[in-house]
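Comment on this:
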Amino acid sequence: MIDLSFFRGIWRRIHEDEVPALAAQLAYFFLLSLFPLLIFLVSLLPYLPISHHDIMHFIRDFAPGDTADFFNNNMENVLKRDGALLSFGILATLWSASNGINAVVRAFNKAFRVEETRSFIVARLMSIVMTVAMIFVFILALLLPVFGRELGELIFSQLGMKKEFLDTWNTMRWMVSLFVLFFVFTGLYWIAPNKRLKITSALPGAFFATGGWAAASWAFSFYVSNFGRYTVIYGPIGGVIVLLIWLYLSAFIIIIGGQINAYFSEKK
């Protein structure tokens, strides 16, 4: 059972491990890896049965309004360029995103109070493998709603219930997205720390990160759409500021998930 000591313990860990500073560092690496990843995904579109609109639908499920528009504008600029970007996108994505994974590993090691004993090559290879796995899961997350909708429309139209299916589709898309997020977070919390863990030890943090990230993204999106006036204050870079704040919130929640797992591991 979770009692008051749990919240006191997590609050103490946040201060001891300087979680806000770690989240800022992680948000920086997320930002660096985001656009190479976008270039890579857009360059793959001719080889996949999805369009850039499908990617935007997935992003708009969680990203604040200004950030989604910022992504859309950059995606359209990338689409106007030639296919030679694919090789650059692969290299840039693997390198920059693996730096982000390394930052996650350092944050989790700090939470578990362990040192990184793996060699630089092993740690970098692990980060690259995890990056490739996350890209694969992300592409799968894009493909599932596309094929799921087509398959659902086919089945339900045969039953004369196509309208009922379309009415529930948005909820189903959210459930698929949340399941994919939970799967990614579970793998991240299980593999990243330099500590032998059971996969069940990663579940508390994965549950928190999935629910917390979805709730924080929705709340921040609501705030930006109704109260935030970042474009008025910051002008043309308002979308970038919104993106940075969103990445910071995301990084903070991911690190807190690692702290929760470390807290329960310490108690055991």
Notes: The longest helix spans residues 120-158.
